[in-house]
Design a protein that fits this description.
single chain, alpha+beta, Heat Shock Protein 90, 3 helices
Amino acid sequence: MPSTATFRIPKHRRHVPTARQRLRKVLADWGMTDELADSVTLSASELVTNAVLHCQVTYARVEVTLILSGPELVLEVSDPDRDRLPRLHDFDLDEEGGRGLALVAALSDAWGCRQEPYAKCVWARFTLAAERAHVPAGS
């Protein structure tokens, strides 16, 4: 059975560090403190920041979910602006932003998005090293 951790934050930039801290704690509780944890945390930071900046639903909450199942770790970030799906785009080297999804694509094994009845979900999948591909005891 997979291990799952879910939490929500208000849709405001000041809560992005809180999401990173909570995510780091979950990963540490699952025994992940290495390069994979860094990649997942950075990807989460980018996806949460995108949700916070681009969701146009007033008083929304952003939901972050981690699912550890066998050889995979899946990160999901959802917000209620279901019709505004993210997409990769070309960016100029002198642009300050616009690289978040490219970074997620580079750090993860796969990423994508889906529309749900009342939200959109952007996800990233990471493959665990063979010695880690187990669900922690007690989860």
